[in-house]
Amino acid sequence: MAKIKHNNFIDTVDTVFADAKEKGILHLYAEGKYLNGRTITINGDEMLHFGTTGYLGLEQDIRLKEAAITAINNYGTQFPLSKTYLSHPLYAELENKIEQMYMIPAIITKNSTLGHMAIIPTLIRDEDAVIVDHQAHWSVQNACQILKLRGIPVEMIRHSNLEMLEDKIRTLMGKSGKIWYMADGVYSMYGDYAPVQELQHLTQKYPQLHLYFDDVHGMSWKGKNGTGFIFDAIGTLEENIVVVSTLSKTFGASGATFFCTDSKLREKIKTFGGPLTFSAQLEPASVAGAIASCDIHLSDEIYGLQTELAKKTKHFGSLLSKTSLPLVSENDSPVFFLGMGTPATAFNFTKRLFAEGFYLNLGIYPAVPIKNTGIRITISAHNKMEDITELARAMDYHFDKAVEETQSSEQKIRQAFRMDSKTKLSVKKQQTELLQIEEKTTITDINKQEWNKYLGIHNILDWEGMQYLERSFSNSQDPSNKWDFFYYIIRDQSMQVVLMTFCTIGIWKDDMLSTESVSRHMEEIRKTNPMYMTSKVLSTGSLFTEGLHCYISPGHPLAEQSVRMLLNELEEKYNSLGADMLVLRDFEHGFRWDELIRNQGYFRIDMPESCVIEHKHLLEFENYGSLLTTRSRQHFNREILQYEKFYDVEIKDCLNEEESNRAYQLYCNVKERNLAINNFSYNREVFENMNSCANWEFIILRIKKLDTVNFIGVMFCYKNSSNVYVPDLIGMDYTAGDGYNLYRQLLYQTIKRARELKIGRIDFGISATFEKKKLGASVIPKTAYVQARENYAMELMQTLQNETNIPR
Q1: Cα angle 423-425-430, degrees, rounded to a multiple of 5
Q2: What superkingdom heads the lineage (predicted)?
Q3: 632 backbone dihedrals φ, ψ, rounded to 5°
């Protein structure tokens, strides 16, 4: 399996959002001539609003509105000048009142995103290091990318994983100045909190550790003067903590604030923070609205607002606790996340709630893992108690219906979120009266003729090929080369095969789906930690094979039902084995069941193309070049035929010990150089077993004039019993073959051998697509479907990819 394309992340997000938009859930427009906070009109339907992040409802407060209107009348719609030069008349009052709230001066920025971009590059010194929680807000993570241009290490940890954080600290402390950990105070999706006390204990244990908190979702509804969750948790701002808060969302106005105890640092950020220096300042209306909000925060009124919101939040939490609804994080924040598992269930549930007159937010990839799709509900001061009660009733009623209609279950959802089940559900396999599924763990328990009829016609997937794979990988003592095999056959009532596939579970490198530059970075770390960033993966097919790994009977009336049954079976296996990732590969573009699979919690990625030579005249012409295009024929004559005379070619059914050692050495040469296909190297047993399998043979190339017994190239080829020739692995001596076009010659000799054997199809595999096309191979685009328990590994690989693409 080779690299996915760089645009896969963008394409995946686009596909997920496009699906939600098509369902009428995202990219909507509010309607009407005014908003009141409690209701919102969409597509002509008035709905109760449970999607706001203005938790105290201050954006509708008449005092903020009148202050903003007066400011526009007095000062205009904007003050078009950088604050570095001159601040408009209201700024000094706002800064003074913010300082009264926090008892410390603040830097005010246009918004939190620009604030992070201004603060982080100035705050972090070249000798420092950064560790980011992988669920920290995008704006924090994006600002940290700038640091990599300066060579500052930026590491990532799994969400609130303090053990992992401590490991990173220990790694960095001997070679860094300050070590900054960046996190949210209240996380925007699940509404869970940063473990502030535990983090403060770590700062005492490791004096180099400093904390950077984005607390925009913790603002106003918590803390003295509404200063937020973090200030409420820490009490006093210490030198090793900085906090970014907000004047928007719950505060009711616009802008963001930054707090630190170091006055020199504060002035430096004001002077050198890019967006602060070069961007326009807050509009007069925003500043005036913020001043009016400060007056509320500085009065006892703020505590009344907090208390009322807390009552509503508690009421909603209490109602949910009486249901079996899968609430992901239980706390007293006004953010609730209800797990749906798959996008299909989330879409169904959301549309049902919309129809009942409730607006709430969809939580979807990449904000959460695609299998952790859910619904974010936010409680605000605008919501009435009876509104909240009705919402809880509607959610409880429609959840079971949405789950049933999308063929999911509460148990599946709780497994996806690693939650305990509240109800004891039957764990029997989901079957129907019309279909039955068989599971086997070895090919020897499957009828040879039946297997070869449906799957054995591809690659090395015939019955003997599967025996070889089991013998080579099932009992390996090397964990990186050990796989367990699972075979699935789904039959209808007449015992006709509707679907057939096989799966393996083993250890994959997480960067297998990343770029070559990322893999080089990872391999440096693996020199001392071989299993670094690896995952337990359940996959259709195996890493040794490519092509069609799943047969689905075309036109069978139960084909769709069989696909659903397989997905259910694989998910059950995935959970019981505790795998980190589930991968379905390799399907051709336009796969019929694409939408069905994606709606079950998979995202689609483009795989490297597969190369196949299957020419109807492949065996007819003595001169193979005559089958090629004019341009390819010129390349063939010049770059291949002209070099054939330098080689002695030998075909062997079995290698002696010396030849086996040489062949393995040449394989390792290629594997070490070719990080574009970065799986684990195969051990010696894989190659030794080729000698005892009659279907394998070896094409060996020597240079005539070198007069040596050592061959410089070898192609490891499998003869599928169904007339398919598979050059599966290759080995080369790059030094000895330099100047002799060794790789191209190996490709050509493979074609010649297939023609000699009168085999009409060559599965040329993946990679080196350009070279294979010039030899007449057809290129077949392939896709895969991936489901992961969390986004951490994928986000880390994306981050490393950005880093390794930075010019040095």
Answers
A1: 155
A2: Bacteria
A3: -70, -35
Angle among Cα 196, 197, 201 to the nearest 5 degrees reads 115
DSSP category for residue 124: S
- CA distance linking residue 713 with residue 720, whole number of Å: 22
Cβ atoms 242, 259 nearer than 8 A: yes
Helix-then-strand count for the chain, H and E: 27, 27
Strand bridging mode 45-49 / 39-42: antiparallel
Gap between the Cα atoms of 644 and 692, Å rounded: 30
Query: Tens digits of per-residue pLDDT, 417-474?
Result: 888 765 444 433 444 578 999 999 999 999 999 999 999 999 999 999 999 999 999 9
Strand ranges inside 672-760, DSSP E: 696-703, 713-720, 724-732
Give the closest residue to 55 by CA, choosing from 214, 213, 218, 190: 218
In this structure, is residue 41 part of a structural domain?
no
CATH code, domain with 242: 3.40.640.10
- CATH code of the domain containing 564: 3.40.630.30
* Domain containing residue 579: 435-607+785-804
Query: How far apart are the C-alpha atoms of 353 and 229, rounded to whole Å?
Result: 31
CA angle in degrees (0–180, nearest 5) for 43-47-49: 120
Q: CA separation (Å) from 250 to 55, 316, 799?
A: 5, 19, 31
Does the bond joining 479 to the residue before it have cis omega, within 30 degrees of 0? no
Write the CATH number for 346: 3.90.1150.10
Residue type, 23: K
Note whether 199 and 171 are within 8 A (CB): no
Tell me, yes or no, whether 128 and 243 share the same domain: yes
Q: Does 233 share its domain with 252?
A: yes
CA end-to-end span of the chain: 29
* Residue 245 and residue 102 in one domain: yes
Distance in angstroms (rounded) separating the CA atoms of residues 380 and 278: 36
- pTM reported for the whole predicted model: 0.76
**Which pLDDT tens digit goes with each residue over 563-603?**
999 999 998 999 889 898 999 998 988 889 998 998 888 88
